[in-house]
């Protein structure tokens, strides 16, 4: 998304706030007084896997999986 000129990875500023290209869905949020956070969801046959990443430090803030039980 940054290469396409849609968004600045560090500030979260740009024209586009989300992007989907299966199996990934990427979105970001920027709240005043808060860090810019990237939300990444990867969908697999076993269920979605979620990542929350700090855009400035590139540090993983949270990671989780939801398993599909059938």
TrEMBL record:
This is Uncharacterized protein. It comes from Prevotella melaninogenica. The lineage of its organism: Bacteria, Pseudomonadati, Bacteroidota, Bacteroidia, Bacteroidales.
């Amino acid at each position: 998304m940054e290469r396409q000129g849609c968004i600045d990875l560090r500030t979260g500023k740009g024209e586009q706030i989300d992007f989907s290209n299966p199996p990934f869905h990427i979105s970001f949020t920027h709240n005043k007084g808060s860090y810019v956070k990237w939300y990444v969801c990867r969908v697999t046959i076993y269920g979605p896997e979620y990542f929350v990443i700090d855009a400035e430090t590139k540090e993983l803030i949270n990671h989780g999986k939801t398993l599909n039980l059938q």
